[in-house]
Task: structure prediction
Amino acid sequence: MANAMVALANLTLGSAQASVTFSSIPATYRDLRLVVQATTSGANAAGFTLNSDATNANYPWVQVFGEGTTAVSNSGAGASGILPFTPNQNFSTTVPSIVTLDVMDYSVTDKHKSMLYRTNRADAVTTAIAARWTNTAAVTTLTVSAISVNFAIGSTLALYGIVS
Amino acid sequence: MPGLIPWGIWAASKATAAAAGDYELITTTVLGSSTPSVTFSNLGTVAAAYKHLQVRMTVRNDAANATNYGSFRINGDTGSNYANHRLHGNGSTPSSGADSGSSTMFIGDFPAATNTASVFGAMIIDYLDFSSTTKNKTVRYFIGQPGSSSSVRLQSGLWASTAAITSISFAVQDGSNWVANSRFSLYGLRG
Result:
């Protein structure tokens, strides 16, 4: 049988940049998996959008996380035009944040897009998030962005397609 | 300058045809109409090549609430052989819970009839060493329901049996139905 998870793109940043866009994503697959390991040029938020939709209200999320003391759960929506990877923490200039994001059923047009992701920043937080893009359109573009800072050289981003 | 990676570039550099691999699709069920349960069966044959299994689901049910619980049984076992531990967040209060001696494996809450339209809950669940006949079976899962009455869960589960897993059946806990367009995909991971 064919491999069910196929690497669509895999890059290591050779220069600092504020965003990376995976565009013209084909509808060949059922789910997408994004894997990011990144630091930023300053302490600020990072996250992503689908199909360039920067409307905060279109990205509700709920999370449970720990920052070293008591576990916390909260919920919210996008901020600064992105769905944040760690809503309660910034990315760091020195400690890479690690994100594993699954966009479920990205290629169908009968569902809002449900997402599950785990983000870890070893010096600050570990979190599990469920989020949604309130749109039934197929996802064709995924943009990973940092707010007012750049992803640092050496940050890695990989996108995979999973068949069904 | 934003980095832009159009598919055309991937096609030239990356998009080799999917080769046989270590993570493979076994089967997918997308419901055409409401149904109370979905079963992956005959796993001793169709999944014989694999060490572990993964199920990826996007589902909704027709219970008359915003959410309703799902569950699964292994090999049709209705005995008190299921246990779980969980970390849960509902957007305001984190909690941890556990069940033991249960007759089904509890898997959390999914959108139901009064939830926002077009919202489906997501779950990714791993069945480790599913064909072993010397170990009790352990599973782990990640579940989210990002609609109204939203929640997110990390959970582990135990089926207290050393029998090889040959079937897995997913049901809505109170006998309601999974609705049309709910999706259940089964994958195998080679050992």
Remarks:
- The radius of gyration of chain A is 15 Å.
- Chain A has one domain: 5-21+30-162.
